[in-house]
Structures are given as C-alpha cells and as structure tokens.
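Data card: per-record layout.
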Amino acid sequence: MANTNTDRETLRELADEGNETALDRLAGLADAVGDLGELSELLDEGSMRAGLLLTRRAAATGDLCELQRISDAGYDDAGNELNRLLETPAGEQGN
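The structure for this 95-residue chain is written out next.
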C-alpha cells in the first residue's frame, strides 16, 4: 500500500516540477486547515483545484469581489458563479 502521508515538502517539490496531482493535494491540505492564503498562492500557480475550493468558499459567503479575483486568476467557473449571483434578484440568494 502506498504511503498516503506524503509530507508537504515532497508535495511542494513535485508541484514545483509541474506535477498537477501534487498541486491538487497541496490545495486539499490547505483547504482542510482553512489556509486561504496558501489556496490563493496555489491558484496563482495554476491549481484548478484551489480555484474550485476558493470559488465554493466565496460563493457560500457571497463574496463577489473574491469571485472576480478568482476568475481573473484563471478559474473560469468563478466567473460563472459571479454572474449567477449578480443575476439573482436581491432576497433570492441562498434559496
């Protein structure tokens, strides 16, 4: 059975070499501890998993500016979510 407790340093080294799975694992770890700064950095590095996780958080809180920032960083679904929230009439969000 493979070691599932791969340390962050190893994941970071693999991510730096272009391994997208390692980048996704780092995003999952950052999300688990609520490290939004690291998630943002990972998004800037191209992690679509980080974009997804940040988008979920921003949509849940209705943070339109954060959704725009995530979209601008290259995660298109954040733009879709932003548009959905902008098109939803006031008082109907969250229903």
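Known properties of this structure: The first helix runs from residue 8 to 16. The chain has a mean pLDDT of 90.

See the next section for split statistics.
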